[in-house]
Every structure is written in C-alpha cells, then in structure tokens.
Amino acid sequence: MNSGAGGARPRYPHPHVYQLLLTKRYLTSKIMPLLAALAVALCTAMVIVVWSVMGGFLVMLINSGRTLSGDVSISWPITGFAYYDELVKRLEADPEIAAAAPVIETYGLIGLPDGRTETVSIKGVDGPSFSRVTGYNDTLYWRPMVKPAEKDTTRQDLRLGKHDLWKQLFEGGKQLVRTEISKADGQRVDRAAVVPGISVSGFNFREPWGFYPGQPYIRTTEGSKKPVDMFMLPVDGTVTLNVLPMDSKGRAIEMVARTFPVANEFHSGLYEIDHKTVFVQLKALQDMLKMNRAEKIDTASGGVRFSSKPSEEDFLPAKVVSEDPARVTNVLVRSKRESFDTADADKLKVRVEKIYEEFAEAHPGKVPDTTQIRVLTWVDQNRTMITAVKKETALVLFIFCFVSLTAVFLVLAIFWAMVSEKTRDIGVLRAVGASRSGVAGLWLMYGLAIGLVGSGIGFTLAYLVVTNINGIHEWLGQKLNLYIWDPRVYYFTRIPSQLDATNVTIVLIGGLIASCLGALWPAARAARMNPVQALRFE
User: Fold this and answer.
1) Average pLDDT over residues 236-265
2) Nearest to 335 by CA among 321, 325, 346, 324
3) CA angle 387–390–395, rounded 5-degree value
4) What pTM was estimated for this model as a whole?
C-alpha cells in the first residue's frame, strides 16, 4: 500500500503475530531454550518418579498391613480374655462385619534345623477363620504353579513341578497341619504344624532383587552361600518353639518347648514380617501358654489346682468346682467393604467397641471391660511405620522440590541473556505499536511454552520409568550387577510405584508456574526498555 503526506498509514502485522513468530523461532532454532525445557523436563520427571515410588510404598504398606491383621483388632495382651467364641458370634452378627477370628500373639524362640535359635513373633491362629478375616491363604508360598513367577526367567522354581506335593502342602498350610502316617497303626494322622515366614529359616535365600529360588542355601563363614543337602522344611523339616506361659495375673510360669513339623511357608512381601513371624495352630499354642480350657479341682485334702487333664493319681478324691475357659489375646475383625479407608476403619472401630461393651456386660468380672482392652484399626496398628513413611515422603519431596528450583533460575538466566541478545527485536516490536504489557506477555508466553514442552516431556519420561521401574531394576541387576532396591532394607520384594492423577497434576502445574516465574523478571525488564535506545543497541 502506497503512503504519502495525504495517504493512509502503512499497515503492519499485529504485534501478536510477531509474538508467535518470534516464540516459534526461538523455541525451534535456539539451543538455550531447549536446554531450559530439558531442565524443566528432568525436574518434573524426577519429582513425579519420587512421589510415585514413595506413594506406592505407602499404599503397599497399608495393603500389606491389612493382609495379615484384618481391619480392626480387639486386644488384651499377655493374659488374654475368655468366651471369645461368643464374642466372634456377636461380631459376625453385625451387618457391617464380614468375619472375625481369634488369635494369640506372643514372642518366643524358634530352634531351626541348622542349630540356630532366633527370636520371632508367634501367632496362634485357626486357619479357616483366620483366612476369612485376612489374606492368609494368598500368602502361602508352596502351591502348584503352571506359569513361572515374574522373576523366574530361567524356570527353576521348584513349584512348577510335582503338583500333587505342592497341593498337599498348600492344603496343609491352610489348616496348619502336617498329614503323616502313624507308626503304631499305619493310619493317616494330622499333626499340628507351623507356617513360618519364607525368610525365617534361611533355607530359602532371597536374592538381592527379591526372588526366592526355593533351593536351600546356607551361608559360609566367608559370607558366600552354598546349597545344602537338605530338603525343604515343609516336606520333612521340623522346628522347635519356645514360649513363656503366664498365669491369670501375668506372672511367668516356666518356659515350654515343643517341636512342630512345618506345614508350609508364607510370603507376605514385607521382609520384616517374612523374617520374624511364625504361625502355629491356635489350639497348640493355647496348650503351650496354659491358655486352654482348665478345670478347677477341689481335692479331699483341701488342695485346689487348675488342670486341663484331671488326674486321679494326683488328687483322690477330686471334685470339679469350676472351669477356667480358654483364652486368646486378640480377635481380628474384617469389614464387608472391599474398599476400606481410614474413615471406614474409624466407623467400624466404633461399632466393634459397642459390641464388646455389650459382651463385657454379659460377663461382668470375667472379661476385661472396655477401659482395659485395646480396639485398634489397621491404621492404628501400623501408625508408626505409616507416619514414618509419610514424613519421609514429605522430606524427600521437599528436598527434590528445592533442587527443582534450579529450573526456575536456569529459565531466568536464559531469558535474561535472551532479552539482552534480542534488544533490537524488542525495539522493533515497540516501534510498530507493541505495548509494554504486550512485550512482557511475549516473554511470559515464551516461558509458558517452555513449561508446557518441558512438563510434557517430563511426564512422558516419568510415566515410562514408573510403569517399567521393576523391569529397569532387573536389567540393571542382570547386566550390570547393580541392585539399588534391596528388599532386606526396603521391606518389599518389588519396587512399589503408583501414578496418582492428583499428584501428577500438581507437579505439572508446578513446572508451568516455575517456568513462568523464571520468565517474569526478564519480561519486566524487556517491557521497561526504551524503544529508541533498544533500536540503537549494538
């Protein structure tokens, strides 16, 4: 269009057109903006991966806690409480409760076939009722397998063969019995048995990446491991449990030892549990701890004693005057809700407390009242570890977010340098009519574009890492002998990870804000430039 003294003013493209063109040009043709986008991507990916792993760790911890403890526990440790069968019936009559199971929890010593003696947590359970409340059956390790385990790349897992044997062990583990042939009459007899954690015996060595090969190993004095000529404990092995019974007043009596066959082994996925826990048949542990049913015997001589097996040879004549019922230390409760969060647990706790209050009123003076017993949710039972993981997650995120501030300063430094480099371009924009706010918006949009590109790349990278993190770890271990995740330290055999949509959104928005903040100061500097001085800039 021609221009002259009386003619129309020349028409130039709108400043926004220059904005778009310059932004595209700088993003695609300059290395520095790409480096800024890469910094944002790495920081975004780093925070998402860390948050996903720590979040997954917490979720797995909570789920594992429910696996073997139920949703709510009624507890009266050491001496225990009686009439638990009635309490179980009252609990299971509630419409919100799926099942309840009696349990005895105590500590003791276990004598292993190789001569070692270890301190363990011993839990007396009734297999069928315990399975209805917990995921116990799913944790039994020795069971028939058609497909190899995820980490058994060489198909060496012993469970892939001899399905009849594994089926027998699986059924025995559920009932906590070992079926044997009686030497006296040749009949099949079910003996009370134990189910230790897979890491208790030490004969199922856990590889550093978390796989149990099933081959019995023993550690040498040099620290290496070698196979031993000993078949698996669940097949023909025995262990000895040592416990300290208490009387009704909580006073120690005398150490009791008993040898049990091993029915199976369990694998919860939590190393601390798998290493220090042994399940035993409830009735057997009651007998050992003197918590079984006993009769109060009045003798002719005036002596009085408690006995589970009255003997006429000891006291003649004898008269049963009362009965001391069998006792347990815990009753575990499971909700009918499949999805069970903290709020649901607290509501169920209130219902359980009400039921126990009615139960205690029915047996005044014979069972602990509501002020003595402890009613705990699965959150309460694992609160220490859950709180520790939450605090550690917050600390790690704070550290990584602080480190991520480098992205802000990197964007700021790059944009500051680019404003200086593009001073003449800024002058041209101002000369053709761009306002101060328009020029500032150019650089802010530029920062937003870097944030979008960087956050997008970071999310893609984080998604690939999180969804394949265990495969990556396996590859590092097999190819480079680099094992970062040791289950003996981190509890779980697998690296937990969970992408949470809310957390990912927060991180992505944070990446965008960081990029815009990095561009804010250079944008303000560009907006304040005098167009005449900017055009003269060399």
Assistant:
1) 87
2) 346
3) 125
4) 0.72
